[in-house]
Write a structure and sequence with these properties.
Blueprint lengths: L1 E5 L3 H11 L5 E6 L13 E3 H10 L8 E4 L2 E5 L7 E5 L3 E4 L1 H8 L5 E3 L5 H4 L5 E4 L16 E2 L1 E7 L10 E5 L5 E9 L2 E8 L4 H11 L3 E7 L2 E2 L15 E3 L15 H14 L3 H11 L1 H14 L9 H13 L1 H4 L5 H8 L2
Parallel strand pairs: 1-2, 1-9, 2-8, 5-12, 9-17
Antiparallel strand pairs: 3-7, 4-7, 5-6, 10-16, 11-14, 11-15, 12-13, 13-14
Bound molecules: flavin-adenine dinucleotide.
Flavin-adenine dinucleotide binds next to helix 1, strand 2, strand 3, strand 11 and helix 6.
Amino acid sequence: MKVAVVGIGVAGAYLMNQLSDMHDVRVTGFERMPEDQHDAVCAWATCENVMAGLAKNCGLNFDDYVLHDGKRMRVDVGSDGSDYVDLKLKGMVSYDKLKLIQDMVKGTEIRFGRAPGKEELEPDFDLIIDATGFHRNYLPKLQNELWIPCVQYKVKYERGQEPFDDFYLKAFPSMTGYFWYFPLGNGYAHVGAGDFSKAHNQFVDEFMKRHPGTALKKVGRPVRITPPASCEPFTDGRKTVGVGESIGTVFALLGEGIIPSTWCADLFVRNMHDLAAYRQAVLKKFEIYSTVFRFVQLKIQGRFSMIKNAPDMIKIYNHMKGEEDRYGMAVRMADMLKVAKL
Ligand SMILES: Cc1cc2nc3c(=O)[nH]c(=O)nc-3n(C[C@H](O)[C@H](O)[C@H](O)COP(=O)(O)OP(=O)(O)OC[C@H]3O[C@@H](n4cnc5c(N)ncnc54)[C@H](O)[C@@H]3O)c2cc1C
């Protein structure tokens, strides 16, 4: 079977690694960026408890990629810094996402600097995987989807000038988004924000003025938060199937897509000969994402009611509480309520 993986992000890289080992599959990757400009646009925060297993599946040791091991995360929920949540972290780290992607695809066949059209791929491949993330270039366009525009700097601070020594977030009113400061070790940090109300650029610029460091890189890209159940179809009905953020595998409350998109790639590997089973597996695995998305959407629209929507909130709390190790943080109802009141 000849397979094309289009898009070499976390999902595409995992697929390249796993499919390359299969004796009955010949896999070719395509990445629109040239190899020397290939990047992993993202804040690089994840949970090592889960990533360790996924990296191990690829013969890699996740510890080798960890840049900063988080202990606590302050989440400001007010305007003047007096109201905040102090989260105890249990495995949240920042890691070298690009290096892990590069190591996952080592020895596989990838054509960089190429964004081939579907008509170019269809005659040559039995299966085309759309792992293009937000772009979803090869699948039918979605109606009424929700995405959050983001901007991010990679900054280098002089020793002792770092604004924070651990993970920091500032939640925006009505949960339209948040500002993040994620340490990358040795004075480096990702400083960024995403905001549905589009105040992210101004907020980040003001922060950069207050805490001047050397801005090494500026990137911008939206993140899709519409969940898988609302990102159907996962296929074009011909040869193309979506994997990762292209089909909505992002946990909307956190804008977290690394683990879910890699999980999605893993589900594909397990079900690649039965796409109906793949669809079912994705819908089941990410079922709670629809509830989380509805919660975030109601907050953004100012339609959230603490009484009417309490069942959803409790459901999300129970889910996260039961999977603290997966989310890499201690989850408390009092914190959840503070965020919900934003
Ligand atoms: C600013 C920002 C910060 C984020 N921070 C975090 C975080 O800290 N932690 C977390 O868990 N999640 C984070 N996310 C979300 C996370 O990055 C994504 O959800 C996740 O990377 C999706 O993985 P993917 O492999 O599906 O797609 P992507 O990682 O987006 O990869 C898609 C790849 O496809 C390529 N591509 C696109 N179109 C084409 C084409 N036509 N042909 C060929 N190649 C193409 C792209 O160049 C890219 O390499 C962040 C998102 C943003 C925007």
